[in-house]
Amino acid sequence: MLRALSRISLLALAVGTASAQSRVVTADLILTNGRIYTVDDTRPVVEAVAVALGKMLFAGNAAGALALKNASTKVVDLGGRTVIPGMVDAHGHVSGLGDALHIVDLTGTSSYDEVVARVAERARKIPKGQWVLGRGWDQNDWGDTRFPTHDKMTAAVPDHPVYIVRVDGHAGLANLKALQTANVTAATQDSTGGHIERAADGSPAGVFVDNAQGLVRRAIPRQTRDEVKTSIVDAVKEAQRWGLTGVHDAGADATDLDVYEELAKAGQLKFRLYAMISDQAATIDAWFKRGPLVGGYNGSLWVRSIKLYSDGALGSRGAALLEPYSDDPRNIGLLVSAPAHIQDVSTRALRAGFQVNTHAIGDRGNRLVLDAYEAALKVAPAADHRFRVEHAQILHYDDVPRFAALGVIQSMQASHQTSDMYWAGTRLGPVRLLGAYAWRSLLNTGVVVPNGSDFPVEQVNPLISFHSAVSRQDARDWPPDGWYPSERMTRDEALRSMTLWPAYAAFQEDVLGSLTPGKFADFVVLDQDIMRCPPELLLKTKVLSTWVGGEKVYEAIP
């Protein structure tokens, strides 16, 4: 019924209500001579599509599409290339990506010495006393996998405060100048839900985990609004380059939301932003009073969800576990938020018509979120709440069926599995690995699993997660048969996990996610067929162009 109404609405828009009975609807844009995957079960693969007024008008054969041509219609011959619906990252950090494009890039570093060298190089280019910020280090990729201390960084960069964030965003390293600037000493207590790594004498060793990061971050100068805007604009351009037509922004503060709305009002977004409001009481209260924003500004902005945190991350041993870490027997992780807080916000969100999406990685973190959601739903029942757990990386087998039972969506990032598989067993031991990154086990319960990257934690390229989902292998095709290969997705599921399932997870399935007449004309042209090429060629696929609302927003340079 909704699809039929969408088609009627499109026809009325295209030809005008007064003459809809007497005029033939024509297309602004036609793509033909391609292999087009629609993710629409009624016509899953077609050779041509037609677009009018930014929405899909037709999907079928070339003759049918060309029948909608007029003198001004733009016709694109795809030359046999592949088209898929616009890919949407169901969990990314937009301003974080923009920031990462401007600070010291530490991804891929193979030693602490390399990290220090990159930071020192940046410090030489800026005045003394100015902060040097970076992101992307991962001690699990180094020969020595222990957390680093500040000593080497302090020796190499003594005159600039330095704060560099671990790849997962859940830990950071400060040098001595930064500690002094932030007035953090041996007497400074751990934050609730956070941990300070300490030297033998009790002084801060340099690394701050989860909520303890705030002890240093408070001293870093806040970005101006113009700097935030620049980061957001740059992030959107970067996302479009990789074939993303939208993202679920997993934690937008008041300034981010203000900038999104400014860009959307001005028609400058050209992107589908589903923004999750950060866990800031004043911002949440303001939006609860205002009410949800659904498809605002020609379908460029949605603000109808809240982002909460249950625990930390596995790589920094902050993920909350039911039993201690296998490689740290005194540690069961950290609870970043009290379960009572998650239940309270969830209850209020249900009453205000907002979705709640909570970060949870460890099995204890996930269980506590499900418990909080279940309690909130008993107080404020809702027929279609679509609450989400972001990551759901490690699950106790008792909790796998609870997602379907509670109507909770697990938003997972397949690329996390192929990044973490080298060391996850060290953290968890063999038994808990059976419930780690277990999207097939979840799919078998009848749920959907929207996919993403968690950028800038992982690379932006959504085809990395597509490849991980179907192969359970890294870019070198290791391990040969895949890591716990029984948990693989099919290619059809993997495509849905980046198109229609994110749309469902954001209440957008009637307007996004497939190349169905009446929906927004968001699509991507690829240089090879990801649904049929050998798995080892998937990561060689290039995005040739990205289209949002029938408008080309990115084109690769030939």
Structural account:
Strands 8-15-16-18-19-20-21 form a seven-stranded parallel beta sheet. A six-stranded mixed beta sheet has the order 3-2-7-22-23-24, with helices on one face. It has a six-stranded mixed beta sheet with strand order 9-10-11-12-14-13. The protein contains 20 helices and 24 strands. Among the domains are: 1-86 and 514-558, Urease, subunit C, domain 1, CATH 2.30.40.10; 94-217, Diaminopimelate Epimerase, Chain A, domain 1 (Roll). A hairpin with a 7-residue loop joins strand 2 (35-37) and strand 3. The two termini are 43 Å apart. With 558 residues, the chain is an alpha/beta fold.
Attribute tags:
558 residues; alpha/beta; Urease, subunit C, domain 1; Diaminopimelate Epimerase, Chain A, domain 1; 7-stranded parallel β-sheet; 6-stranded mixed β-sheet; 32% helix; globular; disordered N terminus
